[in-house]
Design a protein that fits this description.
The structure holds 3 protein chains of 3 kinds.
Chain A (H helix, E strand, L loop, with lengths): L5 E10 L2 E11 L4 E5 L6 H8 L7 E6 L3 E2 L7 H7 E4 L11 H11 L5 H14 L15 H13 L5 E5 L7 H16 L3 E5 L3 H7 L2 E6 L2 E6 L1 H7 L3 H12 L1
Parallel strand pairs in A: 3-8, 3-9, 6-7, 7-8
Antiparallel strand pairs in A: 1-2, 1-4, 4-5, 9-10
Helix pairs in contact in A: 3-4, 3-5, 5-6
Chain B lengths: L1 H9 L2 H27 L21 E5 L19 H13 L6 E5 L15 E2 L7 H4 L3 E2 L4 E3 L1 E6 L18 E4 L3 H10 L6 E3 L2 H10 L4 E5 H11 L3 E6 L9 E3 L2 E2 L5 H15 L1 H9 L11
Parallel strand pairs in B: 1-2, 1-3, 7-8, 7-9
Antiparallel strand pairs in B: 4-12, 5-11, 6-9, 6-10
Helix pairs in contact in B: 3-8, 3-9
Chain C lengths: L23 H35 L3 H8 L2 H41 L6 H16 L2 H14 L9 H27 L2 H9 L4 H31 L11 H12 L3 H31 L7
Classes of the chains: A alpha/beta, B alpha/beta, C mainly alpha.
Amino acid sequence: MTSPLLAVETVHKAYDDNAVLRGLDLSVDAHEVVVLIGASGSGKSTLLRCVNGLEPIDAGRIVLDGELEVTALDADLDVVRRRVGIVFQSFNLFPHRRVIDNITLAPRKVLGKSKTDAEQHAHELLTSFGLSDKANDYPDRLSGGQQQRVAIVRALAMDPELMLFDEITSALDPQLVGEVLDVVRGLSEAGMTILMATHEMAFAQESADRVCFLDGGVVLEEGPPEQVFGEARESRTRDFLARVRAR
Amino acid sequence: MRRSSFALVLVPAALLLAACGSSSGGTTTSTSATASGSTSASASTDPCTPTAMQTLTAGKLTVATDIPAYSPYFIDNKPANGKGFESAVAYAVAKTLGYTADQVTWVVQPFNTSYAPGAKKFDFDINQISITPARAKVVDFSAGYYTVNQAVIALKSSKIAGATSLAQLQSAKLGAQVGTTSYKYILSDIKPTQQPNVYNDSATATAALKNGQIDGLVVDLPTAYYITTAELDNAKIVGQFPAVTANDAEQFGMLFQKGNPLVSCVDKALATMTASGELTTIQDTWLAGVGAPYFTQ
Amino acid sequence: MSVTTDQAEPTPTTTAAAAPYVDPVRRGALRRRGRRNLVVSAVSLVVVVVSSAVVIANASGWPAVQAAFFNPEEFRQYFPDVLAAFWLNIRMFLVAEPVILVLALGIALIRGTRSPVMFPLRLAATVYTDVFRGVPTILLVLLLGLGVPALNISGIPTDPVIWGVVALIVSYSAYVAEVFRAGIESVHPSQRAAARSLGLSSVQSSRYVILPQAIRRVVPPLLNDFISLQKDTALVSVIGPIEALRQAQIDGAENFTFTPYVIAAVLFIALTVPMTRFADWLNARAARERGAGGSA
């Protein structure tokens, strides 16, 4: 049996006295698109940040590709982050660098790519995401949707094996959500492994291979979208979905 | 509207303050004039008595000097104790004019602001101030009460300790106190090859001399005598500058507000003290032993 | 990885090159308002200047103040002296400033570290800023300029200019370190998270992401400190060297005038005004490049 690309095993994480993750288990196979749903504060963002090594965990382990233990005390997190890309709700582009320099910074400084190689790769990515004319702009000249797409390109430029999306459309005006979700859809079609926290239920229903409902710091229920959205076993899942749909 | 009126008030505020200062000074003078005028109506016609003189405060003599007040001009930084050359001179002048010691009030006047425009807060300032024609355009001076020579002091171990001529001082790094004529002497008489250092006061200048940061310190002769006898064990007066002619002699005078009529009274008192030998006695008391060989050119 | 978005490009900034349309009536009204504002500011300026001048010139003490502070003849007479001495201020400033920048940035970076290995250095940096910001600069000048040479350690210079500059460096690097630290802390933590998430090391994140943003933000307060430093070079005079303000004091005491101080002031202003305009220009250029919006 081959190991999953990402294995999260009974992970606990608390901020001071507030336990956010309480023995959470989750696995993501290669080329799989897994969508995390749940109320605000259910631990979706925390889980993603732990997977990327941005937050230390209190107990359990997180293993990448069966061999790299992200949560080992002596883990080289820079190695983890080269293999796992993350995109945040608030874009977090570097405002003092042009789009092209945002994208080439990590490939050049971390992977040691030459300026020419890094820029060529960046231009290819920008072109394929319809952003080729924005390469020399500063981020604050761009719309929110464009900025978020640049942020995705920036993460992709490191050639990650796994992409983490942390509510990447939540800060966008409704009419800009579509262009960003289209990018994610395109990535999944191209075979990227994706773990994504979102409130876009329609997107989850249509594009996810698997939907996980986080509640009380664990994955309370998981399954194919048609099962979770259609015939959820847990009453808490049904309550959550009813509340979301009522909005 | 509010903004512009605010600016109107703000901009000239400092100068208005200055104007207020001078006008209040004028008021003080006129009230004291009235006061002394009424009391002196029946007194003698001598204009130089405590009742006749229009002093800053009627019936009192307000005398200024800097702080700290250094030896041998003042002792223990207490001008009012009557000790030290200038303190003794001030009290002798006051006494000659008819004031008791109690009627003499001392105020602090930093040298650097003693010549500022506007009303002065003293009748006269006695602070080793050398009389020069340029300064006399801005303030009035009394007659000289001491003829002062400049002197060079050095550590006994210094390369200039044995200098006997001004030429031998040329290559030395010299220092002086700011505002003194000593600095001018360095430039005009020694013409050194290195720029001299200048210090705020005798304490920092002496420290620099001790540190070897300067080879020699140029000060007036009494100060040189004091520093080499009381302050530093291992220093000596190398020599004093000769006055080229009698007219060239440098004198300390008391500083007055320009146009202050008190000057003539103080001059008269100084003349009396010179004639009676009192000034010489004071000098012998407080500046005894002050002397040094003269430099040759 | 190559993915195509076939969705139309949303273009929020500009549409076409068509000239913007403004209602002619509104345009006229706006122009008239602009002209009126110009006239009002001109008139209020003239009123303030003229009335201040009248009040000052009619003050009974004005002739004395003018003679003491603003005497044209003395201005010409002493200008070369003070200017020559001002060269020392400039040299001290030019030497101190780069050292201060480097030292202060180093202190700020050390204070920002988290590693336990760095604790002793971090403690030293904290004590350094606490102490040297609190100590009056003039005491540092006296202590280093007169105290250190008195130790009689061979090989240590006794030149007061050197020690004066060292004192300025010690004092100002403590101030400037705090300015840098404030700038670094003003960059949102999400920027560091974004940099780290891309695999950049802590040092690389600081160097390429945090510091460039921090430094851009602290240019105005840094400029303030530079101007203050320029003027504080005058403090070095207490241990002997003759700089512009001391030369002004010497000349002033010789002839009982304050005009030489005004000369020194003019020279200091002549140095600070171009520097301020230069920094304004730098800021404006950076703002133009990055567009109208602020940074995250």
